[in-house]
Amino acid sequence: MNLEKVVFGFFIVLAATLNFGFFIGEIDNPTHHDVYELFAAIVVSLVATVLKLGDRTQIGAVHLSTSLVADLQLLAAAMVWGYAAHVSADGMTPEMMARIVSMSGGALFANVVSVVILIAETIMQRR
Questions:
Q1: Both ends of the chain: CA-CA distance in Å?
Q2: I need a surface site. Which of 25, 42, 63, 101 has the fewest CB within 10 A?
Q3: What is the extent of the structural domain holding 92?
């Protein structure tokens, strides 16, 4: 068993599951979406991105691009959360929460694409 591939797969799947955990719930209800789970999703997604940097294959390039999309979406969601919580006079409204969750949904889709690519790559290597 290749430890490097285990760690790589672990972080890809962990990024997707943390993102899913944040995404699930009523889209406009702030009590269903934890800021610490969003933070954990961002950190793990950034780690997964760093792990994808060394691969020079075409599949590696697609892995990296999906990871960069997820990072961008999650960081944008965190910035909207920070704006809503600390700058906006209205605070965290259902509309702002819906924006945040929608952005994490985009990141979730990118993470799912990355997991599908990982599975396809694994199946191709078995043959």
A1: 16
A2: 25
A3: 3-126
